[in-house]
């Protein structure tokens, strides 16, 4: 492999094409914070982790809208899976990651997806469902468009998890994912996105889907 080159692996059960994956990675790598986070996490020691959610999609939308790649991104979400659902175990990882990115001028948030079912129902009023891997959290995003995970391997190669594919995010087409009844969350977030990235096409939440 030539210096600076890399391969892209598409995880099983994905709808992403190789061509979309290459465009996607080439674009998100233009965000220097993403490159730093992926590079450091590759050797951090977690076995099952993903950089995910808005930071990936919004980097692409920034470039499409003519903004700096890092603009308008509130935080950088890391999902991981650890069967130890104790608060202390997760807090230890949170503290270690905070130290790892102490010199990076963005907010990096890491959460153990195995713990989500513990606090989700008391907070939102409905069950989250069982979690067996970090990507289970990605599957339940309110938006198919941002349900994407990206990680870097110690070899420097990249792996993508995209259960709904990558075409929607590359086309700026926001589509709801109704696996959880979170219409209010969807509407609130997409209204903000519409103001920042007016080129987006936003599909409404289905009226037939329930919400709390």
Concise overview:
Helices cover 38% and strands 14% of the residues. It is α/β, with parallel strands linked by helices and 212 residues long.
Task: Characterise this structure.
It is built from 8 helices and 8 strands, in the order βααβαβαβααββαβαβ. The protein has 212 residues and is an alpha/beta fold. The chain has a 6-stranded mixed β-sheet with strand order 1-6-5-2-3-4. It has a two-stranded parallel ribbon with strand order 7-8. The longest helix is centred in the middle third of the chain and has 14 residues, at 87-100. The relative contact order is 0.18.
Major sheet: arrangement of strands: 1-6-5-2-3-4
- The radius of gyration is 17 Å
Q: Report the β-strand fraction as a percent range.
A: 5-15%
Biggest sheet: strands, sense, closure?
6 strands, mixed
Q: Identify the overall geometry.
A: globular
Structural class: alpha/beta
Tally of structural domains? 1
Pattern of helices and strands = EHHEHEHEHHEEHEHE
- Poorly predicted parts: none
Q: Helical percent range?
A: 25-40%
Intertermini distance:
51 Å
Number of helical stretches of at least 4 residues? 8
